Amino acid sequence: MTARDRILSAIRNSLGPRRPDPDAIAAEAAALLADPQVTRPPLAAPDLAEAFALKAMALGTTIDHVPDMAAVPAALRRYLADHGLPGVALQPAAELAALDWDGTAIHTDIAADEAAGLGLARWGIAESGSLVIHSGSDNPILLSFLPLHHILVLRRNDLLPHLEDYAAAMQGRAQPRNAILITGPSGTTDIEGSYVRGAHGPGFLHVLLVGP
Amino acid sequence: MTVPQPSFKERAAAALSDGALKIAIDRTTGTAERKRAAALATFPEFDAARAKGKAIKNHVIAHLDHYLEMFERNATAAGAQVHWATDDAEARAIVTRICLDANAKLVTRSKSMLGEEIGLPHALADAGIERVETDLAEHIIQLAGERPSHIVWPAMHRTREQVANLFRTGHNPPPAAEDPGTMVQSARRELRAKFLAADIGISGANFLVADTGATCTVTNEGNAELTTTPPRIHIVTAGIEKLVPSTAHAFALLRLLVRSATGGEMTQYTTFHHGPRRPGDADGPEEMHIVLVDNGRTRMLADEFREMLRCIRCGACMNHCVVYRQIGGHAYGGTYPGPMGAVLTPVLDGLAPSRDLAQACTMNGRCAEVCPVGIPLPTLLRAWRRRSWRERLEPGSVRAGIGLWAMLARRPALYRLASRIGVRALRLLGRRGWISRLPLAGGWTAYRDMPRPSGRTFMEQYRAEQARREGGR
Amino acid sequence: MVAKPNPRVGLFVTCLVDAIRPGIGFAAIQLLEEAGCRVEVPQGQTCCGQPALNSGDDTDAAHLARQTIAAFEGCDHVVLPSGSCAGTMVHAYPELLAGDPQWAARATAFAAKTHEITSFLVDVMGYRPQGRRLDASATYHDSCAGLRELRIAAQPRALLAEVEGLQMRPLEGNDVCCGFGGTFCVKYPQISEAITTEKAEAIERSGADILLAGDLGCLMNMAGKLHRRGARTRCFHTIEVLAGHADGPAIGEEG
Asked: C52 — contact with chain B (CB < 8 Å)?
């Protein structure tokens, strides 16, 4: 008997011989997700962008409102200048590459002690102020973790109200190797409960919120 | 040859006499308690969410075989290799074998209580593999050569000054100052190179998502992603109770977990790991191994401890436990401390060496009150007491005392007589209302006085009064 | 729940009140009679069984459960001056006897008619004390079993609010265990002592003249600690104050 067999048969011995069919189990699981509004917090504000911003800023995320994608490079330059950052590692995404980066010191390699990284968020989640990134050929995960300053572009149209809405958006789609919900800069309370930012990941999280 | 281990009482006594430990415990648990209360104050849906969370876990437990197979199928389809381990030794052997086969020299590890439970740190050391703990607290206790004292803040027993001492010798160069900010920066610099040089990264899982085959880690530091992304191999060790039907179910539990653990609303990094690197992916491990560990969980499923399988490891029970807050985590002697540890440790280590844990509880019920998945912890501790009594593990003096008391209590007339005599005897021991030395109950009078019985027993006085009333009629 | 007029109430005195402080039992009789109850004290009672139950000795605990249920069979209600013993009867008795076909239903019925005294006075009898006066400040400790097993929190406070001149002071950590825990405090005296010390410090910080609680076990623990520390806080069971007995000796004072 393999370990797998031993574990599964021990479980079946405890649960008994008469078991519902998979459809019945699936229906029971789905019923557990009914009425999610009863078991989750309401949004911090009726407007998604406002709700998102309230939650994100409460965690130390900074937000810059940008009218359109074309204005992203200039907004980024302002942020780099404000923080005295020499340049930025850019996510190799077609949408970002298509922008006019003249006058911005961009590069693609991510150094071990990278100062700043710019990437695209797939979605934002208003309930929690979270940003969703997916790994892929155009998105190294380390871009979101090695830099001290992490800058994410988020389109207002990509804001989802609640965590469940992200799960629903991914239903039936191909899952990436990594899907990460980023909610504020890296932090730790491991020394006497004192909150310190930039434990291992970015100490700064800045969102360029794009849209009218 | 085994060295005799200090008993629970000895460990507790040592903890009680450690003033720095008490300060450290009060700081962390006090903050945790306040922040949890604040988080719940802004989440009036908590009670409904807790009922839902409990129902989700019960559903998974009732169909555990179904979800394990579903998870295995989907994780395998995503390219992960799924391994099964019935106990800690098998789990250690599987992980060590993967490391040795890969000729790994350096392994990074992201905090996982299951890894502690199965003794992974020692197993890697025995295999000659360098292990680097990357969670800041785990880094601290690795430098100190200790075990975690809390499941959320493993180094909570260490004061800032003690951490500074550890970093001064453990970091090169040592931190420039002793404030937490500077020390965290020093750890960041120290560990960055290790992350990028590791051959294998090992993580735990907060959730195993059955319908996608993903494992989910939640951290605030970002160390899980730095542990699992650069190395060639990612190994996950997870208990079989971590299953959830879907991502949405994981979110429902996550809301409870974070508020209960840290008082936050969401962890900084909530990450789903879905197989190894895809063709064309910019980074990520080439292999992903998932070790599903039983280690007593199917035994719990079979007996009265089934409800404990709902535990999502938030630590709220220990933060709110009067005993934990006096003695800290190490005194419990197992991997898991506090009320949840007092239930789990006898499962993992056997009841005989851990029988004190269920007894050293005032049964005040606060742990069950704060548990985000409604585990009746005092009821489960009582179940251990029942077994301990049945298996005659309780000291003979306790058994004799209870036996004598029960013999009297089962005979009301005799009991009343014994009470009358006992009260008179007690009154002889006291002066001016108080008794300061009590034979057979020195545990009481060592630290507090005992009120002297105020006179004859209630029953004597009541019956005398009844007789008077009847006589006067 | 609405009681029938002049219900027949069986008082379960509790073993600690019987031996250490009978006055609490007489205060209970007085209040119950003021509330319109016919009170009796069945002689078949001894202890609720907690020492056995908490030691894991279910055999003796079940025996005492059956003995107690039988002793109170004829009563409309069973009332106790203790949340801890009441909690045992309400929750543990039905569990202990669930597998006993002759007793399971009787245990459930018994649990349904059993009440801790302050909750019985307020929730069932709608009682409020009249004309009580005590010029003192007091603080209230919520004993754990009553608070968490029986949800007793508002009732004693509502009753105490009727006592003229009594000024209630907040107690930091009022819902945190005092460290008594029944046999816990003699089995693990050092841990108990550390918990009780923090409780005593909080009571002293409250500045109240009087400490009130609804369980004699907790009160003996806290009073004993306060006395050893040399504190001047006087300790009473809540119903002693409600019955107007606070002009007499407090716990540990000689009459």
From this structure: yes
